[in-house]
Amino acid sequence: MKENKNREVKLPFKETKNIVANALKKYVNKSKKDNEVVLKQNSPEKIAEMLNASSIFENGFSNTKELNNFINIYLENTNHLKNPRYMGHQVAVPHDLSGIPDWIHGTINNPSSLYEMGPAGATLEAFMINWMLSQLGWFRGKSLYDFKKLQNNGSGILTHGGSIANMTALSAARSNIAPESWEKGNPKDLVVIGPSTSHYSIVRALSIMGMGKDSFIPVPVDKNEVIITTELENVYTKIKNEGKRVMAVVANACATSTGLFDPIEEMASFCKKNSLWFHVDGAHGAVALLSPVHKLKVKGIEDADSIIWDAHKMLRVPSLCTAVLFKKQEHMWNSFHQKGSYVFHENEVIGMDSMPFTIECTKSALGTKLFWS
Amino acid sequence: MKENKNREVKLPFKETKNIVANALKKYVNKSKKDNEVVLKQNSPEKIAEMLNASSIFENGFSNTKELNNFINIYLENTNHLKNPRYMGHQVAVPHDLSGIPDWIHGTINNPSSLYEMGPAGATLEAFMINWMLSQLGWFRGKSLYDFKKLQNNGSGILTHGGSIANMTALSAARSNIAPESWEKGNPKDLVVIGPSTSHYSIVRALSIMGMGKDSFIPVPVDKNEVIITTELENVYTKIKNEGKRVMAVVANACATSTGLFDPIEEMASFCKKNSLWFHVDGAHGAVALLSPVHKLKVKGIEDADSIIWDAHKMLRVPSLCTAVLFKKQEHMWNSFHQKGSYVFHENEVIGMDSMPFTIECTKSALGTKLFWS
Predict the structure, then answer these.
(1) CB contact under 8 A, A145 and B373
(2) Cβ of B209: how many Cβ atoms within 10 Å?
(3) Structural domain contains residue A343
(4) So what's the ipTM on this one?
């Protein structure tokens, strides 16, 4: 960078690795003690100064003292998620070794979006998707090593975060109802309905997708902020009478602010009855699938058309890592394709390249992070 | 995961770290030798089996032998970017220590999109954005530690990859010409013009944004696949006569397949003359700004309205890390806002939270990766 020879690393791998490892280990142990500070509130100006950012950026780390100082100041000025008193935003409290797969990715830089650019990473992504699909009953293979696209299989993809994941699923829903929109642009009569407490990324996705915020029709919720199913019926009847088409019905599983689940099963059967696309925003709560006790909360989720599931929330994976899952695999293939009229042929061999199915072109090795955690 | 006690980590941090560090070091050294294999072509089924993925996923790493085997098989089945004979896709050949900031992020999981969730990471992101802006002459602060929003300052944001970055810039362009679209949806008369050799993510972004592929009007290129400026004029006149409005003019800096730059300066003055938004896709080539020799190739880039710049290409940063930069800071604030009519007040204090300005809600600590590389 900057064609500045000074910036070349002066510390060898071994020294750097040891200093960072010691600092991280100390950090992890200290963070877990509840008499430690969760978050220090320094200004960015002060942090930059304490880090000695300008000098280090210009000259690199010249000696172990400089690196030691940097890493300690850096770690001090973080939010200590492992602290038992941590009550901040809803991202994973990562498990103690969750940095390792990130370290591997950062060293080898094999994006998993093209098989030939990262065979091992792409393999673990496909493996983890099979595992997630099998939790939903959407996997038809004999073992998780079965990467062929089988008849009636579901499909899925890992992507950088829930917002992008919701947009991916909604794009597939749009391709399904209005395949011409990929070339011609949106028709004007599409709307999405869901609880007024839907995550802001749903409405935002619709705005980015050029449908406008007004294309989201909120359904009233009860005092617990859970959707009222009878109101869903009322809203649907009303917009149908207005000549609008429903692109998708969205459910919270669970709501971001309350942690409560919409009645998935009721909503699923409502969608089935009316032939509507059912999208479950399970960023936080799809993880309930893994618990014999809490599984009941997402009963009916297997009848959804699309689901998103953040691994960087309850699966201990550092940000970002979100799965978008489709009951019908052809819907994934249509997300970003020109025609929604794709017909599935059993003999067609679809490769391991995930690039056509995500908003990103290059991706990180998200599957390895998820596998490891 | 899976409430399976077996999956708990049985190897302590120290042992895991040592095994991974040794394997990575060996990998880096071996990769640099040109008599080594760049890429082995195993099938995903075979890789999964060799990795012993099912058993490890169920039971965790039980002993050092298992971890050793896993990491070595994993690294063997990667694309060895550091090999001198590597001729694959255009992502960074990362520098030897580029895994370290990823390791730190993965351990502490401090997303930089909300200041209080990752003060140190957010600080380094703001610092790096200031540095990038200063390369363009778009920074008005006295030092790179100046994080205030100054009059006539540019602004910018780091995001997960070039595709998302192009979409962010194009969203800002849409907010500028049609601020009502955020609530009401796209007007029907917007088009984007650029060389027919534009990266596929541009046209794809327009389709995702609900404008349709047809809203991209390709301009003919010469035999080197560089835009013909007179043709740009012709295309513009034609679409103006058809009653269409130009949302943005896009330039390649450089083109993905050839590495050649469109005539940025000529295109910039064309856009200025006609009051059109000028977007430079500098994913690959904005890095020329750092070279006294190659800087000429992007002459005029400082007259763009928006630029994207991938750090995970020529800046040695592992994927993903892309900057979206705006000449006028208010354009960034408008990217995902309801109204494009924002008026800049000098005294307004805009916080360090980057979340409102990116497609992602949660982000990784992208600034730290860039700072370190």
Answers:
(1) no
(2) 25
(3) yes
(4) 0.95
Those residues of chain B that have pLDDT short of 70 are: 1-9, 337-351
Alpha helices in chain B (DSSP H): 13-31, 44-51, 53-59, 64-76, 99-108, 119-136, 162-177, 181-184, 200-208, 229-241, 264-273, 311-314, 329-334, 366-372
pLDDT tens, residue by residue, A187-209:
999 999 999 999 999 999 999 99
> Is A350 in CB contact (< 8 Å) with chain B?
no
Chain-chain contact of B104 with A207 (C-beta, under 8 angstroms):
no
Disruptive mutation site among A57, A148, A208, A284 for chain B (greatest number of B CBs within 10 Å) = A208
Residue A303 and residue A338 in one domain: yes
Residues A226 and A295 in one domain: yes
Closest alpha carbon within chain B to A81: B108
Asked whether the beta carbons of residue A319 and residue B292 sit closer than 8 angstroms, the reply is: no
Confidence of residue A334 (pLDDT cuts 50, 70, 90): confident
Work out the mean pLDDT of chain A and round it to a whole number. Answer: 92
CATH code: domain of residue B319: 3.40.640.10
Of all residues in chain B, the one with the smallest CA distance to A361 is B163
Task: Provide the domain limits for residue B362.
Answer: 115-372
Question: Same domain, yes or no, for A61 and A129?
Answer: no
Decide if A64 contacts A14 (C-beta within 8 A). no
Q: Do A270 and A361 have their domain in common? A: yes
Report the phi/psi class of residue A315: left, alpha or beta, with left for phi > 0 and alpha for psi in -120 to 50. Answer: alpha
CB contact under 8 A, A102 and B103: yes
Q: Is residue B95 part of a domain?
A: no
Total domains present in chain A: 2
> Using CB atoms, which residue from A115, A185, A360 is nearest to B161?
A360
**Distance of alpha carbon A37 from alpha carbon A24, whole angstroms:** 16
Q: Are residues A151 and A48 in the same domain?
A: no
Instruction: Tell me, yes or no, whether A273 and A195 share the same domain.
Output: yes
Quick check: A51 and B123 CB within 8 A?
yes
